[in-house]
User: Fold this.
Amino acid sequence: MPEKELGELKVLIQELKSEIHSMDSKQDEMMADIKSIKDVVYNPENGLYARVRDLEQWKTGLNDYDKTKTSVRDLKVWKDSIKDYETVKEDVRDLKMAKEAVKDYEDVKDDVRDLTNWKEGLSKFMWAFGLSIAGLVAKTFVDMI
Assistant:
């Protein structure tokens, strides 16, 4: 090989070596960046998952507070409604009437179901009767011809 080609080859090898060194340093930087991202996400004290866990716990506590607040409000309403005995008596009477109305409704529902079944049976009978009459008329007409 001529010396000129050897010189060019040495220059190219030097450039390649420099590029490989540059890639190696950038890869080290990338590894450091990935490690820092991993720490930000997975750190048990203040990472992303820890923050999400803390928010979920806070939300659960807030929901428990809302339930307790609602329960206390319901208890106050219940206590106020119990104070008036006559109101409670009327409510019991209304419940008895509603129970009777539901029973009557069930009876009516059963009657409607029975009527529907009877109507279906009657409809089938009417079709059979009509078709029989039509058959007899057709037979009489054919016999006359």
Notes: The two ends are 122 Å apart (CA to CA). The chain has three domains: 1-42, 44-83, 88-145. The mean pLDDT is 83.
